[in-house]
Amino acid sequence: MTAILHMIYCFLLGVIASFKDLWLVGFDSVLSPADSLLASIGTGSLSVPVIADQYAWLLGATGMSQAIAIIAGAMGVRFLLQSVPFVRWGS
Asked: Are residues 22 and 56 in the same domain?
């Protein structure tokens, strides 16, 4: 009796796994046009220019890199908070 129950259990696990695979194939087919569109966009202009060693050392010695990071973080938080509905932009 336990062998039959175990066989039914394994069959049900296989059916659930096939539904999971079917879901992944469907989701992948939905996202494939977006993937091909993003793959066709050139990424050459998205590269960040490298800062020269002398300037990087000066920024690190004066603490300017930390200050820029703090200001950028504050601007990001302000943008996120102003994105909340019913909050006036520009305040």
From this structure: no
* Nearest in space to 81 (alpha carbons), one of 66, 73, 67, 68: 73
**Token couple for 29:** 């087919």
Task: Please compute Rg for the chain using Cα positions.
Answer: 27
Using CB atoms within 10 A of its CB, is residue 53 exposed (0-12), middle (13-18) or buried (19+)?
exposed
CA 32 to chain centre: 17
Q: Are 59 and 65 in contact (CB under 8 A)?
A: yes
The residue segments making up the domain with residue 29 are 1-39
Q: For residue range 22-46, what is the model confidence (pLDDT) as tens digits?
A: 888 888 888 888 888 877 877 666 6
Alpha-carbon distance of 27 to 86, in angstroms, equals 35
pTM (predicted TM-score): 0.37
